[in-house]
Task: structure prediction
Amino acid sequence: MFDRRQLIHAALAAPFACALPAWARAAKPPANAASMGRFIAGLPKAEFHVHLEGTLEADMKFALAKRNGLSLPYADVAAMKRSYVYHDLPSFLKIYYDGMQVLLTEQDFYDLAYGYLRKAASQNVLYAEMFFDPQEHLKRGVAIEAVIGGITRARGDAAKSLGIESQLILCFMRDLSAGSAMEALDAALPYKDKLIGVGLDSDEKGNPPEKFAEHFAKARAAGLHVTMHCDVNQENTLEHIRTALLDLKTERIDHGGNIVQSPELMALARSRGIPFTVCPTFSGQVIEDGRPINALRQMLDAGLKVSVNSDDPAYMGSEYITEVLIRAQKDSTLTPAELVRIERNAFETAWIPAQQRDGYLARLKAYAQTWGVTAG
Ligand code: ADE
Ligand code: ZN
Result:
């Protein structure tokens, strides 16, 4: 039992300990799993590869279905989550597109985006660039104003209330027609001030990046940035990476792990400082001659600008960026310095003004110093 004096001492000491300046705290790099977990949890982070519709958690699906008078073919949240079984991109996409049918109103998109941003802010994500798939919503008769409007309102509220900044990337669904993607782009361009870029997602098989050359050119002419998925182990993946880099002049590649199989493409990406948004949960392993290669480890070792991201966390065991980084640290034996480097890569390649970038980089540096870690 504590006596009264001990309790008073503890009460006084606790806030004082938290308020100690960085230089007064012991600067010791994480040395075991528990301190590594704390180091990763507190690390200032950025996220660039998260599909907002892929953050639609099962409990929110039930809440939105109820609000919109829809019924779902599952008894409860647990039964729905048990149905999230997939073995490749098409089987994943089927579950993912089925899931988003409950998103109908501006408020639904607000709730979706605010929910993700609240979770991300709780994990020390300072800044996020988030994908969305407007074609799937337009197809269901949802107006683009509701989609972009709801997400934008959530971004504003999250910045004010949670201190997390974010921007929005419109993705073309590559397995739908080029015409459908152009309709979505044309519908969204009046709101281009609410967007930072365009991307390319969905099923890559038979849908090479050049199918959208005109779309990327139009988006670029409107002042938007350009990124594109090159999913791992896809048919003609190295050709797609080459086209994305050389012909379409992409500024970033989402996934892109197979690049480790081409020294020539790696040299090109390195020389252009192309960032890669790796999502180890879904695309960590490149398969070569039937054997897995750890893409993240090899990309880092090759000096590529890699960041680590969560992709579709609601469908991937509800593992958000902290859990993804903890898993990646173990699977790829990431050192504390490499973890700092990964976040430095992310902040350095974010589509933000220099002043904002400098602020994030200064926070990252200060955090690393409190742990006695220098970025590798
Ligand atoms: N849509 C949502 N997640 C995706 C992914 N990882 N690859 C391609 N399309 C997607
Ligand atoms: Zn993705």
Q: What stands out?
A: Confidence is low (pLDDT under 50) at residues 1-19.
